[in-house]
């Protein structure tokens, strides 16, 4: 006996030969073809899908196509075949978009954070979630917060306002050695920021979930540790990831513990800040001012009170932007590691949320 098949268009013809019998089956069924296609995916070239909102996908597509010439790199919504995609590169992708890729193995954030994935996508248990860890991000973040700190302690904002009315009015300033900085979040970025601020001569206190030892920084952890950090801080810098545990952490109860006329710098996520609490604390002069780079709604809505507030400086989520050239090396390593069955870089704990 032997069995053979051939296909033409969507039709499959099976020829089953036995000495006493010849049967021909004609199926108009796409199901059989789809089954065969799925089983072939493992050997076929896997493709990468770029799924972005609020970020230009072209520089990523160009870089990946140049560095991975044999790989199909597609930009959502121009996906030819959702079934062959095993690797998705994401930034604020449409809600539940990833469920359309039945063979997805890796979801790669193009930023340091993964809240934009965990809060908007349903990931199956076997998905590997990875993020970008890059020295460029830490260095850029340090420079951003340093600019904010120096502008605040040397009172540049006040002089900016005075200049509008041609007011020549010196005001007291602070020196680095007299300023205590609290850093919430001592991860890859926060620990770099804390130790470099400490090296410049600031007194730095840092806070994380688990105990840490970081150069030039006194480290605290847990709830009691948060109190210790807040109670002696002149400038609070938030570099936490956004999780259920850290949401709304910049609230009136916590911010009222800071030193009088403290300054807030939020480069974590908008969801960390209770916006009305900040407005109340600025009004009642508990806080001196704030520099905000991240917001609950981005772009910041036109009618949002933060835009016009004299004591609030806003920047459009630019504190530390992923460098496509260096970060693409991580993506490429992860893509290759997936193909070769090796461990991926910067894998995120989905249970912890960061
Ligand atoms: P990371 O390496 O994952 O570090 C996160 C830090 O937060 C860790 O120290 C962690 O403590 C601490 N943490 C998490 N949950 C906590 C909790 N419940 N209580 C106390 N500490 C907690 O992250 P990263 O790479 O440094 O990035 C941090 C965040 O910066 C990102 O998630 C993103 O939101 C933000 N970011 C913003 C920009 C921008 O342009 N504005 C750019 C890049 C990143 P353990 O060390 O004990 O685990």
Question: What can you see in these coordinates?
Answer:
By secondary structure, the protein is α/β, with parallel strands linked by helices. It folds into three domains: 2-39; 45-134 and 323-340, NAD(P)-binding Rossmann-like Domain (Rossmann fold, 3-Layer(aba) Sandwich), CATH 3.40.50; 135-314, NAD(P)-binding Rossmann-like Domain (Rossmann fold), CATH 3.40.50. It has ten helices and 15 strands. It has helices at 30-40, 58-67, 115-118, 135-153, 156-164, 188-200, 222-230, 252-255, 275-283, 324-340; strands at residues 2-8, 11-18, 21-27, 47-52, 72-75, 85-91, 106-109, 128-130, 180-184, 203-208, 218-221, 235-238, 262-266, 287-292, 312-314. The strands form three sheets. A seven-stranded parallel beta sheet has the order 11-10-9-12-13-14-15, with helices on both faces. Helix 2 packs across helix 10 and helix 4 (135-153) crosses helix 6. The longest helix is centred in the middle third of the chain and has 19 residues, at 135-153. The protein is elongated and about 65 Å long. The model is unreliable at 6-17, 20-29 and 32-44 (pLDDT under 50). NADP nicotinamide-adenine-dinucleotide phosphate is lined by residues 112-113, 137, 185-190, 208-210, 239-243, 245-246, 267-269, 293-294, 317, 319-320, 354.
Heteromolecules bound? NADP nicotinamide-adenine-dinucleotide phosphate
Please report which band the strand proportion falls in: under 5%, 5-15%, 15-25%, 25-35%, 35-45% or over 45%: 15-25%
Which structural class matches the secondary elements?
Answer: alpha/beta
Spans of at least 5 consecutive residues whose pLDDT stays below 50 are 6-17, 20-29, 32-44
Radius of gyration: 27 Å
Second rung of CATH, namely the architecture of the largest domain = 3-Layer(aba) Sandwich
CA(first)-CA(last) distance? 58 Å
């Amino acid at each position: 006996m032997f069995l053979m098949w051939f296909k033409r268009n969507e039709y499959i013809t099976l020829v089953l030969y036995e000495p006493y019998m010849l049967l021909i089956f004609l199926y108009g069924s796409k199901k059989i073809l789809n089954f065969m296609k799925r089983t072939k995916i493992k050997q076929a070239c896997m493709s990468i899908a770029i799924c972005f909102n609020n970020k230009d996908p072209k520089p990523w597509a160009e870089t990946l196509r140049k560095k991975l010439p044999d790989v199909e790199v597609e930009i959502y919504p121009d996906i030819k075949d959702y079934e062959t995609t095993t690797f998705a590169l994401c930034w604020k992708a449409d809600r539940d978009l990833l469920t359309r890729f039945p063979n997805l193995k890796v979801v790669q954030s193009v930023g340091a954070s993964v809240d934009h994935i965990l809060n908007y996508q349903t990931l199956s248990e076997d998905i590997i979630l990875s993020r970008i860890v890059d020295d460029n991000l830490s260095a850029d973040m340090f420079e951003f917060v340093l600019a904010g700190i120096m502008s605040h302690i040397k009172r540049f904002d006040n002089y900016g306002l005075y200049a509008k009315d041609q007011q020549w009015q010196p005001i007291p300033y602070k020196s680095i050695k007299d300023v205590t900085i609290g850093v919430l979040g001592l991860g890859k970025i926060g620990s770099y920021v804390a130790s470099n601020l400490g090296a410049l001569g600031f007194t730095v206190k840092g806070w994380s979930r688990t105990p840490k030892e970081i150069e030039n920084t006194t480290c605290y952890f847990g709830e009691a540790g948060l109190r210790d950090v807040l109670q002696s801080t002149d400038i609070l810098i938030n570099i936490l990831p956004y999780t259920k545990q850290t949401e709304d952490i910049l609230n009136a109860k916590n911010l009222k513990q800071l030193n009088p006329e403290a300054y807030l710098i939020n480069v974590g996520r908008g969801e960390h800040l209770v916006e009305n609490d900040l407005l109340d604390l600025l009004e009642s002069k508990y806080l001196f001012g704030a520099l905000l780079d991240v917001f609950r709604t981005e772009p910041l809505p036109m009618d949002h009170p933060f835009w016009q507030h004299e004591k609030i400086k806003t920047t459009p989520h630019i504190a530390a932007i992923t460098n496509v050239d260096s970060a693409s090396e991580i993506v490429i390593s992860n893509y290759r590691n997936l193909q070769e069955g090796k461990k991926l870089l910067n894998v995120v704990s989905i249970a912890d949320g960061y």
